[in-house]
Amino acid sequence: MDAHSVIIRPVVSERAFSNMEQNKYTFEVAKDANKYQIKDAVEEIFNVKVTRVNTLTVKPKNKRVRYVTGKTRSWKKAIVTLAEGDSIEVFGNQA
């Protein structure tokens, strides 16, 4: 599996930003990717040392649009802990 097909996008949320202070970064990853593939992909793309990978599957939520009920999509989230001194510039130089 290609590194860019494993890592889909960074997750943008308040919790994800507060975890960045502890050197933890959150990504949406491919559903069939395992922890070793996620670790290798992050190390290859961002050129950092990964010490730990935690994964979880985000379950779909029930949503309703007018009279039709449905569900949101389910996806896999990975929280990647980097080695001391490493960091990822998620949004470049935007401020």
Describe the protein's architecture and organization.
The protein is α+β, with helices and mostly antiparallel strands. Helix content is 23%, strand content 37%. It contains 3 helices and 6 strands, in the order αβαβαββββ. The chain has helices spanning 3-6, 14-19, 35-46, and strands at 7-10, 24-29, 50-58, 62-65, 68-71, 75-82. A hairpin with a 2-residue loop joins strand 4 (62-65) and strand 5. The chain is globular, with a radius of gyration of 15 Å.
Write down the CATH topology: Alpha-Beta Plaits
Placed side by side, the strands forming the largest sheet appear as: 1-2-6-3
Number of domains: 1
Compute the CA-based radius of gyration. Answer: 15 Å
Task: Spell the H/E element sequence.
Answer: HEHEHEEEE
Q: Shape, please?
A: globular
Average pLDDT figure: 93
Helix content: 10-25%
Q: Tell me the strand percentage band.
A: 35-45%
Query: Low-confidence stretches at least 5 residues in length (pLDDT < 50)?
Result: none
Q: What CATH architecture would you give?
A: 2-Layer Sandwich
The fourth-level CATH homologous superfamily is: RRM (RNA recognition motif) domain
- Report the top-level CATH class: Alpha Beta
> Can you summarize the main beta sheet?
4 strands, antiparallel
Alpha-beta classification? alpha+beta
Q: Measure the end-to-end span.
A: 34 Å
Tell me how many strands there are.
6
Query: Helix segment count?
Result: 3
Organism: Collinsella tanakaei YIT 12063
Family: Belongs to the universal ribosomal protein uL23 family.
Pfam families: Ribosomal_L23
Subunit structure: Part of the 50S ribosomal subunit. Contacts protein L29, and trigger factor when it is bound to the ribosome.
